[in-house]
Amino acid sequence: MDTTEQHWETFYRDRDQVWTGKANELLVREVGHLTPGTALDLGCGEGGDAVWLAEQGWQVTAVDVSTTALARGAARATELGVAARIDWQRHDLGRTFPTGVFDLVSAQFLHSLVAPEGERESILARAAEAVAPGGVLLVVSHAGWATWQHDHPHADHHFPTNAEVLASLDLDLRKWVVEVDETVEREMHGPNGEHGTRGDHVLRLRRS
């Protein structure tokens, strides 16, 4: 088991459930008005986004490196009656990438403290290539640590801006439209009852 897989397997196995099971609210905000088609959910975790997309009528390919997380997502999809709409695939996205093109490619908080330098940029470039004509690439990412995390052991970790993400994608802007380029500040609660705020970047691009 390589470092990336081991890290995320440990992350999920150490707890019976990591996430709430609900879809990321910024995904809901940005995708809720779109006509359902095919969707690729990168780093799907326990499947909250994938299940929500399937409930809206999308045919979803949900990808993660953790088999534990994928199994939890699949169980949840079966429980809610949308299993037929989701194809769960295990990929270490730095090494392998799902085939096909999609009407929506979603990368929600695709951060990793164990990923090699440049890997995230490479994955997002592959994500852009997987967007079908007329489709959407949605990248939602943290702008920094939450306000109560000032003593985080990785406090110096760099969170790319939307401008940096766009520059790394190196897209032909004659073929892409930047529909949303925004940073959203939200109130949040930490796992131990902390209260504060955290900023998130939202970048929504449409391929012509």
From TrEMBL:
Alphabetical keyword list: Methyltransferase, Transferase
Gene Ontology MF term list: methyltransferase activity
EC number, as in UniProt: 2.1.1.-
Keyword Methyltransferase found: yes
Disordered: annotated span: 186-208
Bias-annotated ranges (Basic and acidic residues): 195-208
Residues annotated as domain Methyltransferase: 40-135
Pfam families (UniProt xref): Methyltransf_25
PANTHER family found in the cross-reference section: PUTATIVE (AFU_ORTHOLOGUE AFUA_2G14390)-RELATED, TRANS-ACONITATE 2-METHYLTRANSFERASE-RELATED
Protein name: SAM-dependent methyltransferase
Organism (species): Saccharothrix hoggarensis
